[in-house]
Design a protein that fits this description.
By secondary structure, the chain is α/β, with parallel strands linked by helices. The protein has helices at residues 17-28, 43-47, 50-67, 83-107, 162-165, 182-193, 213-225, 315-329, 359-364, 380-385, 413-416, 418-425, 430-434, 445-453, and strands spanning 5-13, 33-37, 111-114, 117-121, 124-127, 132-140, 144-146, 159-160, 174-178, 197-202, 229-232, 236-241, 246-250, 255-258, 260-263, 267-269, 302-304, 344-346, 351-356, 369-375, 391-397, 403-410. It is globular, with a radius of gyration of 24 Å. Residues 342-449 form the Pyridine nucleotide-disulphide oxidoreductase dimerisation domain.
Length: 462
Protein backbone atom coordinates (compact mmCIF):
# COMPACT_ATOMS: atom_id res chain seq x y z
CA UNK A 1 0.00 0.00 0.00
CA UNK A 2 2.99 2.28 -0.51
CA UNK A 3 2.04 5.71 -1.81
CA UNK A 4 -1.60 5.25 -0.87
CA UNK A 5 -3.34 7.12 1.91
CA UNK A 6 -4.62 4.90 4.70
CA UNK A 7 -7.45 6.27 6.81
CA UNK A 8 -7.88 5.82 10.57
CA UNK A 9 -10.05 7.22 13.31
CA UNK A 10 -6.87 8.01 15.24
CA UNK A 11 -3.26 8.12 14.10
CA UNK A 12 -0.57 8.10 16.81
CA UNK A 13 2.98 9.27 16.15
CA UNK A 14 5.25 7.57 18.68
CA UNK A 15 4.73 4.22 20.42
CA UNK A 16 6.16 4.95 23.83
CA UNK A 17 4.03 4.64 26.99
CA UNK A 18 1.81 7.64 26.19
CA UNK A 19 1.34 6.70 22.54
CA UNK A 20 0.76 3.00 22.93
CA UNK A 21 -1.56 3.59 25.90
CA UNK A 22 -3.68 5.89 23.75
CA UNK A 23 -3.65 3.32 20.95
CA UNK A 24 -4.60 0.40 23.20
CA UNK A 25 -7.32 2.33 25.01
CA UNK A 26 -8.73 3.72 21.77
CA UNK A 27 -8.73 0.32 20.07
CA UNK A 28 -10.49 -1.26 23.05
CA UNK A 29 -13.22 1.37 22.58
CA UNK A 30 -13.67 0.36 18.95
CA UNK A 31 -11.61 3.04 17.22
CA UNK A 32 -9.54 2.20 14.15
CA UNK A 33 -6.00 3.10 15.18
CA UNK A 34 -2.71 3.38 13.29
CA UNK A 35 0.57 4.04 15.07
CA UNK A 36 4.00 5.07 13.76
CA UNK A 37 7.22 4.19 15.60
CA UNK A 38 10.79 4.77 14.45
CA UNK A 39 12.34 2.11 16.70
CA UNK A 40 10.59 -0.60 18.74
CA UNK A 41 7.25 -0.26 20.50
CA UNK A 42 7.53 0.63 24.16
CA UNK A 43 9.61 3.76 23.73
CA UNK A 44 12.26 4.95 26.15
CA UNK A 45 10.59 3.37 29.18
CA UNK A 46 10.73 -0.16 27.85
CA UNK A 47 13.77 0.02 25.58
CA UNK A 48 16.20 2.47 27.20
CA UNK A 49 14.74 3.63 30.50
CA UNK A 50 12.50 2.39 33.29
CA UNK A 51 12.50 -1.33 32.59
CA UNK A 52 16.20 -1.97 31.79
CA UNK A 53 17.33 0.38 34.56
CA UNK A 54 15.17 -1.41 37.13
CA UNK A 55 16.52 -4.76 35.93
CA UNK A 56 20.01 -3.54 36.79
CA UNK A 57 18.75 -2.22 40.12
CA UNK A 58 17.38 -5.69 40.83
CA UNK A 59 20.80 -7.14 39.98
CA UNK A 60 22.25 -4.73 42.54
CA UNK A 61 19.66 -5.82 45.13
CA UNK A 62 20.46 -9.51 44.64
CA UNK A 63 24.20 -8.80 44.88
CA UNK A 64 23.67 -6.72 48.02
CA UNK A 65 21.52 -9.42 49.64
CA UNK A 66 24.07 -12.12 48.93
CA UNK A 67 26.84 -10.04 50.46
CA UNK A 68 24.79 -9.58 53.64
CA UNK A 69 23.48 -13.16 53.80
CA UNK A 70 25.80 -14.05 56.70
CA UNK A 71 23.55 -11.95 58.94
CA UNK A 72 20.90 -14.62 58.38
CA UNK A 73 23.31 -17.49 59.03
CA UNK A 74 23.88 -18.22 55.34
CA UNK A 75 27.51 -18.59 54.24
CA UNK A 76 28.26 -17.96 50.57
CA UNK A 77 31.68 -16.34 50.37
CA UNK A 78 32.36 -13.15 48.45
CA UNK A 79 30.05 -13.02 45.40
CA UNK A 80 31.33 -12.24 41.94
CA UNK A 81 29.69 -10.18 39.23
CA UNK A 82 29.50 -10.88 35.51
CA UNK A 83 27.76 -7.75 34.30
CA UNK A 84 27.57 -9.10 30.75
CA UNK A 85 25.23 -11.82 32.04
CA UNK A 86 23.06 -9.17 33.69
CA UNK A 87 23.08 -7.32 30.37
CA UNK A 88 21.79 -10.43 28.61
CA UNK A 89 19.10 -10.94 31.24
CA UNK A 90 18.07 -7.31 30.90
CA UNK A 91 17.74 -7.66 27.16
CA UNK A 92 15.74 -10.86 27.57
CA UNK A 93 13.29 -9.07 29.87
CA UNK A 94 13.00 -6.16 27.43
CA UNK A 95 12.55 -8.43 24.40
CA UNK A 96 9.81 -10.50 26.07
CA UNK A 97 7.89 -7.40 27.14
CA UNK A 98 8.31 -5.86 23.69
CA UNK A 99 7.03 -9.02 22.03
CA UNK A 100 4.08 -9.13 24.42
CA UNK A 101 3.20 -5.50 23.78
CA UNK A 102 3.46 -5.94 20.00
CA UNK A 103 1.20 -8.98 20.18
CA UNK A 104 -1.34 -7.15 22.32
CA UNK A 105 -1.46 -4.21 19.92
CA UNK A 106 -1.91 -6.55 16.96
CA UNK A 107 -4.69 -8.45 18.74
CA UNK A 108 -6.53 -5.14 19.26
CA UNK A 109 -6.38 -4.43 15.54
CA UNK A 110 -3.84 -1.61 15.83
CA UNK A 111 -1.81 -1.21 12.64
CA UNK A 112 1.86 -0.45 13.36
CA UNK A 113 4.14 1.33 10.87
CA UNK A 114 7.88 1.19 11.59
CA UNK A 115 9.73 4.24 10.30
CA UNK A 116 10.29 7.96 10.88
CA UNK A 117 7.00 9.81 10.91
CA UNK A 118 6.35 13.48 10.15
CA UNK A 119 3.08 15.25 10.85
CA UNK A 120 2.37 17.24 7.66
CA UNK A 121 -0.80 18.99 8.81
CA UNK A 122 -4.45 18.36 7.96
CA UNK A 123 -4.42 15.03 9.80
CA UNK A 124 -1.67 13.51 7.63
CA UNK A 125 1.43 11.69 8.79
CA UNK A 126 4.00 10.53 6.26
CA UNK A 127 6.31 7.63 7.08
CA UNK A 128 9.87 7.25 5.81
CA UNK A 129 8.92 3.84 4.39
CA UNK A 130 6.51 5.51 1.96
CA UNK A 131 3.11 5.26 3.62
CA UNK A 132 0.77 8.17 4.33
CA UNK A 133 -1.66 7.89 7.21
CA UNK A 134 -4.71 10.11 7.56
CA UNK A 135 -6.48 10.40 10.89
CA UNK A 136 -9.70 12.05 11.91
CA UNK A 137 -7.68 12.80 15.04
CA UNK A 138 -3.91 12.79 15.52
CA UNK A 139 -1.93 12.19 18.70
CA UNK A 140 1.74 13.20 18.80
CA UNK A 141 3.82 11.38 21.42
CA UNK A 142 7.42 11.24 20.23
CA UNK A 143 8.93 11.20 23.72
CA UNK A 144 12.28 12.56 24.84
CA UNK A 145 16.02 11.93 24.90
CA UNK A 146 18.81 12.65 27.41
CA UNK A 147 19.98 16.24 27.71
CA UNK A 148 23.64 17.00 27.13
CA UNK A 149 26.15 19.64 28.31
CA UNK A 150 28.45 21.67 26.06
CA UNK A 151 31.95 20.28 26.33
CA UNK A 152 30.67 16.84 27.29
CA UNK A 153 30.01 15.30 23.89
CA UNK A 154 28.67 11.79 24.31
CA UNK A 155 31.19 9.31 22.88
CA UNK A 156 30.28 6.10 24.72
CA UNK A 157 33.86 5.85 25.96
CA UNK A 158 34.46 8.69 28.40
CA UNK A 159 31.06 10.41 28.43
CA UNK A 160 27.79 8.50 28.63
CA UNK A 161 24.12 9.21 29.12
CA UNK A 162 21.55 6.77 30.43
CA UNK A 163 21.26 5.30 26.92
CA UNK A 164 24.91 4.22 26.85
CA UNK A 165 25.00 3.06 30.49
CA UNK A 166 22.24 0.57 29.76
CA UNK A 167 24.40 -1.01 27.04
CA UNK A 168 27.54 -1.50 29.14
CA UNK A 169 29.06 -4.98 29.28
CA UNK A 170 31.37 -3.97 32.15
CA UNK A 171 31.01 -1.38 34.89
CA UNK A 172 33.69 1.30 35.38
CA UNK A 173 35.82 1.11 38.50
CA UNK A 174 35.39 4.85 39.06
CA UNK A 175 32.61 7.07 37.75
CA UNK A 176 31.37 10.62 38.15
CA UNK A 177 27.65 11.18 37.74
CA UNK A 178 26.82 14.74 36.71
CA UNK A 179 23.30 15.40 37.99
CA UNK A 180 21.73 14.50 41.31
CA UNK A 181 18.16 14.03 40.15
CA UNK A 182 16.23 10.77 39.93
CA UNK A 183 18.26 9.22 37.11
CA UNK A 184 21.60 10.22 38.59
CA UNK A 185 20.75 8.91 42.06
CA UNK A 186 19.41 5.61 40.73
CA UNK A 187 22.58 5.00 38.71
CA UNK A 188 24.73 6.00 41.68
CA UNK A 189 22.90 3.55 43.94
CA UNK A 190 23.14 0.54 41.64
CA UNK A 191 26.74 1.16 40.51
CA UNK A 192 27.99 1.61 44.07
CA UNK A 193 26.25 -1.60 45.14
CA UNK A 194 27.95 -3.44 42.28
CA UNK A 195 31.43 -2.21 43.19
CA UNK A 196 32.05 1.06 41.36
CA UNK A 197 33.47 4.05 43.22
CA UNK A 198 30.86 6.75 42.56
CA UNK A 199 30.82 10.51 42.97
CA UNK A 200 27.68 12.57 42.31
CA UNK A 201 28.19 16.18 41.22
CA UNK A 202 25.09 18.37 41.42
CA UNK A 203 25.00 22.12 40.69
CA UNK A 204 22.00 22.72 42.96
CA UNK A 205 22.40 22.83 46.77
CA UNK A 206 20.84 19.38 47.31
CA UNK A 207 20.05 16.06 45.68
CA UNK A 208 16.56 15.25 44.40
CA UNK A 209 15.15 18.79 44.34
CA UNK A 210 11.40 18.76 44.89
CA UNK A 211 11.46 15.67 47.08
CA UNK A 212 10.70 15.99 50.81
CA UNK A 213 14.02 16.77 52.51
CA UNK A 214 13.45 14.22 55.28
CA UNK A 215 13.32 11.44 52.67
CA UNK A 216 16.40 12.74 50.88
CA UNK A 217 18.33 12.85 54.17
CA UNK A 218 17.75 9.12 54.70
CA UNK A 219 18.96 8.34 51.18
CA UNK A 220 22.03 10.57 51.55
CA UNK A 221 23.01 8.86 54.81
CA UNK A 222 22.75 5.49 53.08
CA UNK A 223 24.78 6.74 50.13
CA UNK A 224 27.56 8.01 52.36
CA UNK A 225 27.69 4.74 54.31
CA UNK A 226 28.20 2.94 51.00
CA UNK A 227 31.05 5.23 49.98
CA UNK A 228 29.22 7.36 47.43
CA UNK A 229 30.80 10.80 47.19
CA UNK A 230 28.38 13.74 46.99
CA UNK A 231 29.36 17.19 45.75
CA UNK A 232 26.44 19.62 45.74
CA UNK A 233 26.33 23.31 44.92
CA UNK A 234 29.03 23.03 42.28
CA UNK A 235 28.84 22.78 38.49
CA UNK A 236 31.19 21.20 35.98
CA UNK A 237 33.27 23.05 33.38
CA UNK A 238 34.84 20.32 31.27
CA UNK A 239 36.87 17.14 31.17
CA UNK A 240 40.22 15.99 29.81
CA UNK A 241 40.54 12.41 28.50
CA UNK A 242 43.95 10.83 29.07
CA UNK A 243 43.64 7.42 27.45
CA UNK A 244 43.00 5.50 30.67
CA UNK A 245 40.08 7.66 31.75
CA UNK A 246 39.26 11.33 32.02
CA UNK A 247 39.64 14.15 34.52
CA UNK A 248 36.47 16.05 35.37
CA UNK A 249 36.93 19.75 36.17
CA UNK A 250 34.51 21.38 38.60
CA UNK A 251 33.49 25.03 38.73
CA UNK A 252 35.24 25.52 42.09
CA UNK A 253 38.59 24.65 40.50
CA UNK A 254 38.82 21.12 41.86
CA UNK A 255 39.08 18.04 39.67
CA UNK A 256 38.17 14.38 39.76
CA UNK A 257 39.93 11.58 37.90
CA UNK A 258 37.49 8.85 36.80
CA UNK A 259 37.13 6.11 34.23
CA UNK A 260 33.86 7.50 32.91
CA UNK A 261 31.40 10.36 33.29
CA UNK A 262 27.63 9.84 33.20
CA UNK A 263 25.63 12.93 32.27
CA UNK A 264 22.22 12.69 33.99
CA UNK A 265 20.77 16.19 33.89
CA UNK A 266 17.30 15.33 32.64
CA UNK A 267 15.66 14.80 29.28
CA UNK A 268 14.56 17.02 26.39
CA UNK A 269 11.50 16.53 24.14
CA UNK A 270 11.87 14.99 20.70
CA UNK A 271 10.11 17.80 18.85
CA UNK A 272 12.63 18.39 16.06
CA UNK A 273 11.97 17.12 12.53
CA UNK A 274 8.49 15.79 13.32
CA UNK A 275 6.44 18.65 11.84
CA UNK A 276 6.11 19.53 8.17
CA UNK A 277 5.65 23.02 6.73
CA UNK A 278 1.85 22.79 6.71
CA UNK A 279 1.54 21.74 10.33
CA UNK A 280 0.39 24.56 12.60
CA UNK A 281 1.40 22.99 15.91
CA UNK A 282 3.14 25.50 18.19
CA UNK A 283 6.35 24.44 19.95
CA UNK A 284 7.80 26.43 22.86
CA UNK A 285 11.34 27.79 23.06
CA UNK A 286 12.22 24.85 25.30
CA UNK A 287 11.06 22.37 22.68
CA UNK A 288 7.78 21.33 24.33
CA UNK A 289 4.58 21.23 22.32
CA UNK A 290 2.02 23.68 23.70
CA UNK A 291 -1.34 22.12 24.65
CA UNK A 292 -4.52 23.18 26.42
CA UNK A 293 -6.11 21.43 29.43
CA UNK A 294 -7.41 18.67 27.13
CA UNK A 295 -3.94 18.14 25.57
CA UNK A 296 -5.09 19.64 22.27
CA UNK A 297 -2.43 21.59 20.37
CA UNK A 298 -2.85 24.86 18.50
CA UNK A 299 -4.08 22.80 15.54
CA UNK A 300 -7.64 21.52 16.16
CA UNK A 301 -7.92 17.75 16.30
CA UNK A 302 -4.21 17.29 16.99
CA UNK A 303 -3.15 16.31 20.50
CA UNK A 304 0.22 15.94 22.22
CA UNK A 305 1.03 13.85 25.30
CA UNK A 306 3.89 12.28 27.22
CA UNK A 307 7.41 13.69 27.40
CA UNK A 308 6.66 15.88 24.39
CA UNK A 309 4.67 18.26 26.63
CA UNK A 310 5.82 20.06 29.75
CA UNK A 311 4.41 17.69 32.35
CA UNK A 312 5.93 15.10 34.70
CA UNK A 313 8.14 12.82 32.59
CA UNK A 314 6.79 9.56 33.99
CA UNK A 315 5.54 6.55 32.06
CA UNK A 316 2.42 6.21 34.18
CA UNK A 317 1.62 9.87 33.63
CA UNK A 318 1.91 9.21 29.89
CA UNK A 319 -0.55 6.33 30.30
CA UNK A 320 -3.02 8.62 32.02
CA UNK A 321 -2.64 11.38 29.43
CA UNK A 322 -3.23 8.84 26.62
CA UNK A 323 -6.44 7.63 28.24
CA UNK A 324 -7.61 11.21 28.85
CA UNK A 325 -7.12 12.17 25.18
CA UNK A 326 -9.04 9.13 23.90
CA UNK A 327 -11.92 9.90 26.26
CA UNK A 328 -11.99 13.44 24.89
CA UNK A 329 -11.97 12.13 21.31
CA UNK A 330 -14.86 9.79 22.17
CA UNK A 331 -16.82 12.72 23.58
CA UNK A 332 -16.93 11.17 27.03
CA UNK A 333 -15.25 14.09 28.75
CA UNK A 334 -12.20 13.61 30.90
CA UNK A 335 -10.60 15.42 33.77
CA UNK A 336 -6.98 16.35 33.05
CA UNK A 337 -4.30 14.71 35.16
CA UNK A 338 -3.79 16.41 38.53
CA UNK A 339 0.00 16.61 38.45
CA UNK A 340 0.23 17.65 42.10
CA UNK A 341 -1.13 14.23 43.08
CA UNK A 342 0.59 11.78 40.75
CA UNK A 343 2.68 8.97 42.26
CA UNK A 344 6.46 9.34 42.15
CA UNK A 345 8.80 6.38 42.58
CA UNK A 346 12.60 6.51 42.92
CA UNK A 347 14.32 3.12 42.86
CA UNK A 348 17.45 3.94 44.83
CA UNK A 349 18.45 1.94 47.89
CA UNK A 350 16.59 2.86 50.02
CA UNK A 351 13.61 3.46 47.74
CA UNK A 352 11.64 6.70 47.82
CA UNK A 353 7.98 7.13 46.87
CA UNK A 354 5.46 9.89 47.38
CA UNK A 355 2.21 11.43 46.26
CA UNK A 356 0.65 14.76 47.11
CA UNK A 357 2.02 17.71 49.04
CA UNK A 358 4.96 18.14 51.34
CA UNK A 359 4.43 20.01 54.59
CA UNK A 360 5.92 23.16 53.06
CA UNK A 361 3.80 22.89 49.90
CA UNK A 362 0.67 22.37 51.98
CA UNK A 363 1.40 25.50 53.98
CA UNK A 364 2.05 27.48 50.80
CA UNK A 365 -1.39 26.43 49.52
CA UNK A 366 -3.14 27.77 52.59
CA UNK A 367 -3.51 24.59 54.63
CA UNK A 368 -2.64 24.28 58.29
CA UNK A 369 -0.68 21.02 58.01
CA UNK A 370 -0.03 18.43 60.69
CA UNK A 371 2.53 15.67 60.19
CA UNK A 372 2.98 12.18 61.62
CA UNK A 373 5.85 9.77 61.01
CA UNK A 374 6.31 6.06 61.64
CA UNK A 375 9.99 5.07 61.64
CA UNK A 376 10.56 1.59 60.23
CA UNK A 377 12.83 0.73 63.14
CA UNK A 378 9.70 -0.24 65.07
CA UNK A 379 8.14 -2.23 62.23
CA UNK A 380 8.29 -6.00 62.71
CA UNK A 381 8.63 -6.87 59.01
CA UNK A 382 11.36 -4.28 58.51
CA UNK A 383 13.30 -5.86 61.39
CA UNK A 384 12.76 -9.33 59.94
CA UNK A 385 14.14 -8.43 56.53
CA UNK A 386 16.93 -6.32 58.05
CA UNK A 387 15.90 -3.04 56.37
CA UNK A 388 15.07 -0.56 59.10
CA UNK A 389 16.30 2.73 57.62
CA UNK A 390 13.30 4.82 56.64
CA UNK A 391 9.83 5.87 57.62
CA UNK A 392 6.32 6.70 56.44
CA UNK A 393 5.40 10.37 56.69
CA UNK A 394 1.82 11.57 56.24
CA UNK A 395 0.80 15.21 55.85
CA UNK A 396 -2.80 16.09 56.70
CA UNK A 397 -4.90 19.19 57.23
CA UNK A 398 -5.02 19.95 60.94
CA UNK A 399 -8.72 20.87 60.93
CA UNK A 400 -10.29 18.31 58.59
CA UNK A 401 -7.62 15.59 58.85
CA UNK A 402 -7.78 15.26 55.05
CA UNK A 403 -4.70 13.42 53.77
CA UNK A 404 -2.67 15.89 51.70
CA UNK A 405 0.52 13.96 51.08
CA UNK A 406 2.15 10.59 51.73
CA UNK A 407 5.96 10.26 51.67
CA UNK A 408 7.82 6.98 52.13
CA UNK A 409 11.50 6.07 52.24
CA UNK A 410 12.68 2.54 52.89
CA UNK A 411 12.39 -1.03 51.58
CA UNK A 412 9.79 -1.50 48.83
CA UNK A 413 8.57 2.08 49.23
CA UNK A 414 7.51 2.07 45.58
CA UNK A 415 5.16 -0.85 46.24
CA UNK A 416 3.89 0.59 49.52
CA UNK A 417 2.73 3.88 48.01
CA UNK A 418 -0.53 2.72 46.42
CA UNK A 419 -2.82 3.12 49.47
CA UNK A 420 -1.28 6.51 50.15
CA UNK A 421 -1.80 7.59 46.55
CA UNK A 422 -5.45 6.52 46.72
CA UNK A 423 -5.92 8.32 50.04
CA UNK A 424 -4.54 11.57 48.62
CA UNK A 425 -6.58 11.43 45.43
CA UNK A 426 -9.81 10.40 47.16
CA UNK A 427 -9.26 13.25 49.62
CA UNK A 428 -9.81 10.75 52.40
CA UNK A 429 -9.63 11.73 56.06
CA UNK A 430 -7.49 10.03 58.68
CA UNK A 431 -10.65 8.87 60.48
CA UNK A 432 -11.94 7.15 57.34
CA UNK A 433 -8.66 5.35 56.72
CA UNK A 434 -8.13 4.38 60.34
CA UNK A 435 -11.16 2.06 60.15
CA UNK A 436 -9.29 -0.28 57.78
CA UNK A 437 -7.28 -3.14 59.25
CA UNK A 438 -3.65 -3.53 58.21
CA UNK A 439 -2.22 -7.08 58.09
CA UNK A 440 0.55 -7.95 60.55
CA UNK A 441 3.49 -8.27 60.24
CA UNK A 442 3.84 -6.18 57.07
CA UNK A 443 5.64 -3.08 55.95
CA UNK A 444 2.25 -1.65 54.98
CA UNK A 445 1.34 -1.43 58.67
CA UNK A 446 3.51 1.68 58.82
CA UNK A 447 1.05 3.63 56.69
CA UNK A 448 -1.93 2.43 58.71
CA UNK A 449 -0.23 3.25 62.00
CA UNK A 450 0.74 6.73 60.82
CA UNK A 451 -2.78 7.53 59.65
CA UNK A 452 -4.19 6.12 62.89
CA UNK A 453 -2.00 8.54 64.86
CA UNK A 454 -3.47 11.48 62.95
CA UNK A 455 -6.88 10.78 64.52
CA UNK A 456 -5.47 11.86 67.87
CA UNK A 457 -5.16 8.34 69.27
CA UNK A 458 -2.60 5.76 68.33
CA UNK A 459 -1.01 2.38 68.97
CA UNK A 460 2.71 2.36 68.26
CA UNK A 461 3.17 5.82 66.72
CA UNK A 462 3.49 8.79 69.04
Amino acid sequence: MLGEEQAFDVVVLGAGPAGYAAALYGASAGLKVGIVERDRVGGTCLQRGCVPAKEYLETAAVYRNIRSSSEFGITTGEPGLDFAVSQKRKQSVVDKLTSGLSGLMKSRGIVTFLGDGVYQGNGRITVSTGETLVGDKVIISTGSRPRSIPGFEVDGRYVLTSDEVLLLEELPKTVAIVGGGVIGCEFASLMADLGSKVTIVEALPRLLPGVDQDLVDVMVRSFKKRGIGIRTGVGVTGHSPNGEGTTLTLADGSSLAVDQIIVAIGRRPNSEAIFGDKASVVVSDRGFVNVDVNYETSEPGVYAIGDLIDTAQLAHVGFAEGVAVIKTILGEGSLPVDYSRVPWCIYTHPEIAFAGLTEEQARDRGYDPVVKKDPLGGNSRARIIGEVDGFVKVVADRNTHQILGVHIVGPWATELLSPGYLAVNWEASAEELAQFIQPHPTLSEAFGETVFALTGRSLHVG
